[in-house]
Each structure stands twice: as C-alpha cells, then as structure tokens.
Design brief:
The complex is a heterodimer of chains A (about 700) and B (about 260).
Chain A lengths: L1 H22 L4 H11 L39 H6 L6 H7 L1 H6 L3 H7 L14 H7 L1 H6 L3 H9 L16 H7 L4 H7 L8 H10 L14 H7 L10 H7 L13 H15 L4 H6 L2 H5 L3 E3 L5 H11 L7 E5 L6 H17 L4 E5 L16 E4 H7 L8 H15 L3 E4 L3 H14 L4 E6 L3 E2 L5 E2 L1 H4 L1 H5 L4 E4 L2 H10 L4 H4 L2 E3 L22 E5 L8 H10 L4 E5 L4 H13 L3 E4 L13 E6 L8 H8 L4 E4 L14 E3 L5 H13 L1 H18 L2 H7 L13
Helix pairs in contact in A: 11-12, 18-20, 18-21, 21-22, 27-30
Chain B lengths: L5 E7 L6 H17 L4 E8 L3 H9 L5 E3 L4 H11 L4 E6 L3 E2 L3 H11 L4 E11 L4 E4 L24 E3 H6 L14 H11 L3 E13 L7 H7 L9 H7 L21
Parallel strand pairs in B: 1-2, 1-4, 2-3, 6-9
Antiparallel strand pairs in B: 4-8, 5-9, 6-7
Helix pairs in contact in B: 1-4
Classes of the chains: A alpha/beta (about 700), B alpha/beta (about 260).
C-alpha cells in the first residue's frame, strides 16, 4: 500500500506539474517563489505532520531535481498536501460516496486516483465540479482541481466553492443548530432541493439575499436590519453571526425562539384534546416548524413609515402629493400650488410628499423653507435594501393622511395617491378635502388611451372636492366622454397656470431678430412628434434648429443620428431653466405634439416674447391662436410648420403684433394674482410675478 | 357577593358547535385560576346569534346575554357594563385560552400595578395558514410607537381592568364609512391615554383563522377600512418641539424657478 501510494503520489505530482506548465500560467521562477512562500513543501519529510488516523497512508515525498533549481532540496508530497488541508474530509467522503466505502478503498487514495476524475468532491468545503466549470483553464489542463487550488488557485484568488472564501467549514453550520436543513426545505417548498448540502449552499449563496431564514432560530432580515453597519457583501448574515456576531453578543433573532417554541409545545399539548382542528392540522413536532411572525421584524413599509413620521416636525394644513420632483411641467404646477398655499398660510402650512420614486433633481424649485419628504429617501435613510411595493406606497399615503388629517390634500400625478383616493376616499374625505390635478390624456405605444384621466378619474370623482385642469379643453372632453352630471361639473375647475418671475414689461425684442434660430424643447417621445420635427428641419435648410430634449435612449437615438447628419440641427441637453436660454436670439419656438394639455414650455416661451408655432392639440389653442401665434391645425403636415416658420422669419412686423397680443393674453390670464384667485387664495397686495 | 377578580367575556355570534372548545378552554382556564385562589366568572355576549350557538353556550353551562349590535366592539362594551370582575379577559367564540392564561395574567397584574393591559406572549394560529404570532411588549427596546399606525401589535383578546374599559370603550365600526379594526383603534387610544401593553411570558392563546364570512377584520379589509379616528398621532406631532426642522431638505429661493 505504501509503495503503491508513493508511486501514485509521484506520478500524480509529475503529471500535475507538467500540465500546469502546459497551461502557460505557471512561470518557473514564480512557482518556486510560491512553493517557498507557501510553506507547504518546504518542511523536511520527517517533520511532516500526519494525523493519527491517517498514519498508514502513503507519505512519499518527491523531489524535483529537474524542475526548479532553487527547490531541488525541497520536498513535496501531494498526499500530504491534500491530506493536510481542511478541504479533504475522509469521513465525509465515505459518507457521501457509499460505493467508495463499500469498495474498501482508502478515501484519500480513492480521491487522488479516481475521485477527482469522477467529479467527486473531497469534502464539503471544496466543490470540484464547480471549480472546473468556473475555471476552464484548470479543466483544460486536466489536473486535480483540489491540488490546483492548494498549489496555485488559492494564491491566485480563486474560490474553492461558489460560496466564496469567507464561509466556514460547512459542518459548522449544521453543528451550530442555526441551519436546519429539514426546516429550510419545509419552509421553502419552492426550492425543491433534497440534499442538506444543496439546501445549505442555497441559503449561503441565494437564500439570505432573499431574506429566507436558515432555521427558526436565525432571523436573516432582522439580523441584517439590526446590524446594518455590517458589510454583508463580505459575509452572509449567518456566517457573520457564527464568525463574529456571537462573540460580540449579537442576537441571532429578535426573540428567544427556543423559549417561544417551548411555550408552543406546552400549549399545543394543553389544547389539542379540546380542539380537534388543532390536533388534526399539525402535530407537536410540526408546531415546532411553524413560521413565527413577530412585529419585532419590520418590513420596508414599517421602516419607511417610522422614518417618515419621525421627520414630520408639526402638523400641516395641506399636503401636496407628487410622484417625484423633477424638472417637468406637472412638477412645476405642484410647485406653483405650494407657493400659493404658502402665500395664504405660511411656509409651515404645507408639505410636499414624493410617493412613487426617488427622483428629486428639482428640489431647488422648492420655495425657501418649504417642507419636502420622499418615501424613498426615508427608506434609504434607514438602510433598508428592500424596495417599497406599490401596495406599500398606497398604505403609506393612506396612513399619512389618516394620521395627520390635513385640511386638504392635492394630488399632482402621484399614482399612489390616486390609488389611495380610490380605495379610501370615503374615510379620508371625512377629515380632509381631497383634490387632484389632471393635465391631459395620454396614449400608450399602441395608441390606446391611457393616463390617470382614464384610470382614476371616474372611480375617484365622487371623493374629490376639486379636480384642477390647466386648460378648458380637457375638462370639456372628460365631461363629454363620461357624461359628468351638472352637479359634479362644478368640481372640475380650470386653473390656468401662472407665468411667474416675468419682467414688469414685455421683453424687448429686436424689431427683426437677426437670427434664423428655432427653439424646440420638450421630452423626446412619441407624444411630441419627433418625426414631424425632423421633417420640418429637413424642409427648412435656411433655418437652424436648437433641439433641447431628454428621453429614453431608444427614442433619442434616431434624433441624435439625424442631428449629427443634418447641418441645420443641433441636439442639446434639456434646459434646466428657460430663463438660462438666450431667448432673445430665437426667431421662434416650435412645439410639435400629437396630444397635449397646455404645456408650460409654451407659456414660458410666450412670456419671453418668442413667437410660437404649435400643433393644434389639447388646450394649446387656448393660448396660441391666429392672434397670438401660429396654430398648426394640420398637425401631421410638416409643410404647415415649415411654412409658418419661414413666414415668421420673413415678416417681422406681423410677428411683433402677434407677440404683443400674446403678452397681453399672458398678462390678463396667466398672472400670479389671477392664479391665486383661481386657487381660492386671497391675493396679497404685493404679490409678485405679475407681468 | 364579593367582586370576582376576573370576568371572562366570550364574544359569540354564529359559531355553533365550533364554540364548544372555546367554552371548554375558558372553563378550564377559570378552574385552573380558581384552584390557585383567583375568583373568576365566565359570561358570554351573543350578538345576533343563531339558535344552535345559543344552545351550545347553554349546554356549556353559560347563560348568555344577547345584543343586537352587529359590531364586536360594541358587544364587548355591553358585556363589560354587566361584568362583575375587576379585570376583564376577552375571548372570541372560536378561539381558545391556554389553561394557565387567566391565572398568569392575574398574577402579572398583581405584581406590576402600573396602568397595564396584558396580552398572551404567544398566539398559535390554526386553520388556514397555521403560524405563531409573537406579541410585542411595549417595554421592549424593539417597540416603536409609530409602527402602530401601519400595523396592529396585539389581538383583541386582552386582559384589562374593567374601569379602563368603561372609561375607554371600543369605538364603533362603520364599514360603510370605511371605519373598522375597532381593536386596533382601541390599542392606539389606550396608549394615547398613557396605558402600557405588556405580555405575560409563557402564556398563549390558540386563534382560529377565520373564514371570510366570520372575520370582522377581514370584512374591514375587504371594505377597505382604516382604523377609527384617534388623536394619538396628532398629539405626538403637536408635542414635538417647534424648532425641529426637516433633515436633509435643501432650501432654495423660489426666485430660482425657471423664468
């Protein structure tokens, strides 16, 4: 046996090293350095440690005079190398492979001679098949993967299993009692695993990330939340607890689960003779495996609510709900409403809450001192990795209104708030006036009518005190479409948006703008008809087009390609602020659209005295008509737009007239005081923003 | 007649034979307590019951009182008025007390005489999806008051002084006006009045997971109810120091708006 083993080791080693060199990733000098540094091969043979249990095993030491000059006098023994590592486990090997046990082979000899070639693992800590699959260069070399790992792989940063290097020897998890394979399988029937090793591996690789518990005694999600300072990228929570946590008196669960289960057993025995449904449904043993629910563990919604509630410094008269706060038209309208309420009752009277997303890049639009809270920001503040579901957002919105009972709320495009009004409008409406804003209908990719006007207007109307429209056309459309009775029509209010921060007199424009620059600025999407825009650009080579817009890359890309080839078009980033544009240099503002409300960009352009060419859709005709601009009724006809732009370029006097008319319209209808009046806010004497 | 230490109030409706183990568990828990020197009366309040349920209670040795509320909170309030005990222990007509519950709860109430409402530590849910619900103790460092706005901490089967229940009765449910979860609201209101909810270690109730027709709370959920009005959260916010400001909120002058 010894002799045979010695030959085996020598051959295995010779073949191994030859193949390693063939792999091309082993330099002689480097290999020598590694051997010296590793200490694995440097000890004299007589000092090699052999465990009592394996003293009968071959311990042949092979010197390699032909290999590496500096290592000639060094001894190496593959058998010793493998046997001395933590990764070979004789008992596990025999238990895992009964055919080997039955054959009478010594487990180590079997593994070195046959096992690794047959894809067998040397122990629970090394997954041979995975290693070869993960590192195809090793597989191609045809070497024993465990030997490769011990000699080279470990130093190269390769992993012994997909579990990584930080896991404990797998037996330790079972020994701790904190991984219960049977319980894990029963609690997670979706896994369909039967081997306890597979189940453990599942937990260590995936299960903890999915907040599954390894046993009733360890609460993964709670542990991660409670000890949020731990970097769980390096250690899964169970490994962290076993390695470090228990030494620092961390708790594996929020409650004493063992004691709870004792109580359950006792009560089960106590009551099973009284209630047959109890006894027939589960046994006392089953009762030990029942899931434990406890309010000690909080989900994303509870964590978010706690943080949100903590951040509320005082009661508010009004809450404005928005989906997010970005530089969009609806967001600006929410800001206007906030400013109006502040003028009425002070900055502490109103709170804005973003319900649907963490996007808040327009925070600088908030009036000075105004309060703004975001669900996602609250969740991030408590280091909760689980995102809020839509149901969570609805529940938070309902709870916020129900707990604080503001005098009124205004929903400006928050989906969570629309859903809240639909579900809980009856009870919430008893304490708070419920209001919402609608802008225009929307259409999906297939041209089907969509948007909140289609999904929530009808079920919510009877709960709403006011529905605010920024144009009259859309209001009329909904009244017609849904046969809104007269008694409810008074709830539908048109509130024309203000044009604020305007100069006190019309913007002086050059009599004849010495420019041929056209401004286009909107989201780049089907609604804004970029295809028509491109055709207009093609048809007006004498004009230059500055196209400002943001949109999904898929939609933006064709316009980008077009602009790069079209000498008279520039695709620019969206403007954060209309006021930063060189508006006096523009000959006209072009607005192409297939459907619309009354876009704020048009108001802005109008207020700056830029002549407007716009599609006749939605409420645009309430601002742009033949007296105040160029309304394109043949919306899909690029020539009509091109013609209007050329006319503007060539007829400065008529342009001046129309611009003057537009400024008068803005002054009369879109002034700040007019807005306050429409919002039911008394207009202060020194209210700013008037034209 | 001396005042009993405890009155058990069983809330019944149309449980029929299902109520038998409930009655038996209440009687057994009462006997266990009596054996240890605690006096207990057991009464039942049946709200719009059927004939079978009435017969089952009578067979179990309890002459029930009848009410016509269609509201479990109101039924409990009515029963409390007639109850003689210093403490009231509520039990729903299809749930079970652990044998030691009454004696252990009473012992806890005597050893800690602050304003405390007591709950069992464990609820063993059976029928439907069986599971264990572990009650929170308000004096645990894991307790967060705000959470009760979004999640009820305790079942309705509490052990509370009759005086408290008379001065702070259960609120009315009104499904039509989307107001339900009377026990949840009562938990909040008692906290608002300065009472502490604690658990009695090692005690348990067995709770039958109700069918869709029998569960008041499920009806409340289906009717999209919220808990009845409470001043708890308004008062908490109003008591916050005025100088507190929002964290992480960036303020910018409104004049920076796009012009």
């Amino acid at each position: 046996m010894n002799a045979a083993g010695s030959v085996l080791s020598a051959i295995t080693y010779k073949v191994f090293v030859r193949r390693l060199f063939r792999m091309g990733n082993l330099k002689r000098a480097r290999f020598g350095q590694f051997l010296r540094a590793s200490g694995l091969f440097s000890r004299p043979r007589h000092l090699n440690h052999v465990s009592q249990a394996n003293q009968h095993l071959p311990t042949k030491t092979s010197t390699r005079p032909d290999m590496e000059p500096s290592s000639r006098d060094r001894s190496i023994d593959i058998t010793q190398l493998v046997n001395g590592s933590d990764l070979f486990d004789s008992a596990w090997y025999l238990n895992q492979y009964p055919d080997v046990a039955a054959s009478g082979h010594h487990p180590l000899s079997h593994f070195l001679e046959h096992g690794w070639k047959e894809g067998r693992d040397p122990g629970p800590g090394f997954h041979a098949t995975w290693y070869l699959h993960q590192y195809p260069d090793v597989a191609a070399a045809g070497v024993n993967p465990l030997v490769h790992y011990l000699v080279m792989g470990q130093a190269e940063g390769r992993l012994p299993t997909k579990l990584g290097r930080n896991v404990l020897p797998l037996d330790a998890y079972f020994a701790s009692g904190l991984f219960d394979a049977k319980w894990y399988a029963k609690s997670n029937p979706d896994l369909g695993y039967s081997s306890e090793w597979d189940l453990l591996e599942h937990y260590l690789v995936y299960g903890w990330k999915e907040s599954r518990n390894p046993s009733p005694l360890f609460y993964t999600h709670w542990y991660m939340t409670r000890y949020a300072h731990v970097l769980f990228e390096q250690y899964d929570p169970l490994t962290h607890y076993l390695r470090f946590g228990q030494k620092q008196n961390y708790l594996p669960a929020p409650v004493d689960v063992g004691r709870i289960l004792d109580t359950v057993s006792q009560q089960y025995r106590d009551l099973k003779d009284l209630e047959p449904d109890l006894a027939s449904q589960f046994s006392e043993t089953d009762a030990q495996h029942l899931p434990i629910s406890t309010k000690y563990i909080r989900g994303a919604m509870e964590l978010c609510w706690n943080e949100l509630f903590q951040r509320i410094p005082h009661l508010y008269q009004r809450i404005i709900f928005v989906p997010w706060l970005i530089r969009g038209g609806a967001d600006l309208e929410a800001i206007y409403a906030m400013r109006a309420y502040i003028e009425q009752a002070g900055v502490q009277s109103v709170l804005m809450v973003a319900t649907d997303s963490d996007r808040d890049d327009a925070r600088d639009w908030l009036p000075d001192g105004a309060a703004f809270l975001s669900y996602d920001e609250c969740l991030a503040a408590v280091n909760c990795q689980t995102p809020l579901s839509f149901e969570d957002r609805v529940h938070l919105t309902a709870t916020l209104i129900h707990s604080l009972r503001p005098q009124a709320i205004l929903n400006v495009n928050s989906r969570a708030c629309w859903e809240t009004i639909e579900r809980y409008g009856t009870v919430l409406g008893q304490s708070s006036e419920l209001n919402a804003a609608l802008f225009c209908r929307d259409f999906d990719e297939n041209g089907r009518s969509a948007g909140y006007s289609q999904t929530y207007f009808r079920p919510c109307l009877h709960h709403l005190s006011n529905v605010l429209f920024d144009n009259a056309r859309f209001r009329e459309e909904l009244i017609q479409e849904f046969f809104v009775p007269e008694r409810l029509q008074s709830r539908l209010q048109v509130v024309y948006q203000p044009w604020t921060t305007a100069p006190t007199k019309p913007v002086p424009r050059k009599q004849n703008p010495q420019t041929s620059r056209i401004l286009w600025g909107a989201r780049i999407c089907r609604q804004k008809a970029p295809d028509i825009l491109m055709e207009v650009v093609r048809r007006c080579p004498e004009l230059e087009f500055d196209i400002h817009g943001v949109g999904d890359e898929a939609v933006r890309q064709p316009l980008k390609d077009f602009a790069s080839q079209q000498p008279n078009a520039r695709l620019l980033e969206p403007f954060a602020d209309f006021g930063t544009l060189p508006h006096q240099q523009y000959c006209a503002f072009l607005h192409t659209a297939r459907w619309e409300g009354l876009p704020n960009a048009l108001l802005q352009a109008a207020g700056y005295g830029i002549p407007i060419v716009a599609s006749d859709v939605g409420g645009i005709s309430e601002l742009v008509d033949d007296d105040t601009g160029w309304l394109i009724r043949d919306v899909e006809n690029p020539s009509a737009y091109a013609e209007a732009l050329r006319f503007i370029h060539n007829h400065p006097r008529i342009v001046e007239e129309k611009v003057a008319n537009m400024l008068e319209r803005i002054r009369q209808r879109h002034g700040w005081s007019n807005y306050l009046q429409q919002m039911g806010v008394p207009c202060p004497a020194n209210s700013g923003g008037e034209l | 007649m001396t005042q009993p230490n405890i009155t058990v109030v069983i809330n019944g409706h149309r449980e029929g034979l299902i109520a038998a183990p409930t009655i038996a568990s209440a009687q057994r828990s009462a006997a266990f307590a009596r054996d240890r020197g605690v006096s207990v009366e057991v009464m039942a309040v049946l709200d719009r019951p059927d004939e079978l349920t009435i017969e089952v209670f009578r067979s179990g040795g309890i002459e029930p009182m009848f009410v016509d509320h269609g509201d479990p909170g109101m039924s409990r309030n009515s029963a409390v008025k007639l109850a003689q005990g210093q403490w009231i222990a509520f039990l729903d007509g299809d749930d079970l007390f652990g044998t030691s519950w009454l004696q252990e709860a009473y012992a806890s109430s005597q050893s800690d005489q602050r304003n405390i409402i007591w709950h069992p530590e464990i609820n063993l849910y059976f029928g439907g999806y069986p599971h264990i619900f572990h009650h929170m103790d308000m004096e645990s460092k894991e307790f967060h008051l705000a959470t009760i706005a979004v999640s009820n901490y305790w079942t309705a089967l509490c052990f509370a002084p009759r005086e408290l229940l008379l001065s702070c009765p259960y609120p009315t449910s009104n499904m039509k006006h989307q107001r339900g979860f009377e026990d949840w609201a009562w938990n909040m209101e008692t906290i608002h009045r300065g009472w502490i909810h604690k658990v009695v270690p090692g005690t348990a109730h067995a709770i039958r997971i109700k069918t869709s027709t029998a569960s008041v709370n499920r009806t409340a959920t289906n009717n999209r109810c919220l808990w009845p009005r409470t001043e708890l959260f308004l008062d908490i916010v109003q008591q916050r120091p005025l100088q507190q400001t929002h964290r992480d909120v960036k303020y910018t002058a409104f004049d920076d708006l796009p012009a």
